[in-house]
């Protein structure tokens, strides 16, 4: 099979890296990777796999779980059954950071309920000077998180991972009063609410639902932020559009200032609106 000069150079480099890594059957693995990512050798098999994927999607299996990957803000993230698939909606956080708030040089940033690491990794791509830690507790999600961190390290994107329950206050003591920015996309769907089967049936329950009003974990994050943020530090939480008033009240009750709910119609879609509430710790 004939490859372009660029493809052949990539194949040669891949062979070298696989050998250095101690992979036991380099050529077999390399053939599989070439067939998957560069050029399909058997079109009949490709068509069969295509139709299998189509039928899975018709069964409302999330696309990311079918193909095993999702593009988020230009980052190719590995995902699969058992982890929440990051939605484009979360890019509202990065738009806010680019257009409205410049995180101080070298600041510590926490990405809570990190899942596959999309939000924290996308911040790190833009701001390599920041000290970013992605926090996740679920075993399966944490495996995807660490896998994405390790694979994107080859792009010089650096993020730390911390496996800890948000309710374990002592585990966060190293960050007390020292964090410049906390971002979070926690589960925020009320437990009795009916939603699309992609999320209701095929995502982990705890990555979607959070108490009777959907805000149990949001309340916990706001309390944690009061302890972790330094003076003038910011908290950014993603949530549903109908929850804006209640989330702002939770921010206010916790002593935050400059509170604002932002809706971005440009990255909203039929599955819901792109919404965050932001607030600053001034006292």
TrEMBL record:
Stretches assigned to the Methyltransferase small domain: 97-194
GO molecular function: nucleic acid binding; peptide chain release factor N(5)-glutamine methyltransferase activity
Family matches, as CDD domains: AdoMet_MTases
Statement: the UniProt record of this protein carries the keyword Methyltransferase: yes
Top-level taxon of origin: Bacteria
EC number(s) recorded for this UniProt protein: 2.1.1.297
Reactions it catalyzes: L-glutaminyl-[peptide chain release factor] + S-adenosyl-L-methionine = N(5)-methyl-L-glutaminyl-[peptide chain release factor] + S-adenosyl-L-homocysteine + H(+)
Keyword Ribosomal protein: no
UniProt-listed GO biological process terms: methylation
Keywords: Methyltransferase, S-adenosyl-L-methionine, Transferase
Name of a matching Pfam family: MTS
Protein name: peptide chain release factor N(5)-glutamine methyltransferase
Gene source species: Photorhabdus australis subsp. thailandensis
Gene: prmC_1
């Amino acid at each position: 099979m004939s490859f372009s000069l660029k493809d052949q150079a990539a194949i040669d480099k891949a062979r070298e890296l696989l050998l250095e890594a101690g992979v036991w059957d380099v050529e077999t693995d390399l053939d599989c990777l070439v067939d998957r990512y560069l050029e399909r050798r058997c079109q009949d098999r490709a068509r069969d796999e295509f139709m299998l994927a189509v039928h899975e999607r018709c069964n409302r299996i999330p696309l990311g779980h079918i193909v095993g990957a999702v593009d988020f803000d230009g980052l190719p993230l590995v995902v699969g059954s058992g982890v929440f698939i990051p939605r484009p909606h979360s890019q509202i956080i990065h738009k806010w950071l680019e257009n409205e708030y410049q995180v101080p040089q070298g600041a510590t940033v926490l990405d809570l309920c990190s899942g596959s690491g999309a939000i924290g990794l996308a911040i790190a791509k833009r701001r390599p000077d920041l000290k970013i830690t992605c926090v996740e507790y679920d075993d399966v999600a944490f495996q995807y998180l660490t896998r994405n961190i390790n694979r994107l390290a080859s792009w010089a994107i650096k993020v730390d991972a911390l496996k800890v329950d948000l309710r374990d206050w002592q585990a966060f003591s190293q960050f007390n009063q020292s964090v410049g920015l906390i971002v979070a996309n926690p589960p925020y769907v009320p437990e009795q609410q009916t939603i699309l089967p992609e999320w209701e049936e095929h995502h982990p329950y705890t990555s979607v639902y959070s108490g009777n009003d959907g805000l149990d974990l949001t309340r916990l994050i706001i309390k944690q932020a009061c302890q972790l943020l330094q003076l003038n530090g910011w908290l950014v939480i993603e949530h549903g559009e109908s929850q804006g008033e209640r989330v702002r009240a939770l921010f206010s009750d916790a002593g935050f200032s400059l509170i604002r709910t932002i809706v971005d119609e440009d990255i909203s879609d039929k599955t819901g609106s792109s919404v965050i509430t932001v607030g600053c710790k001034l006292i």
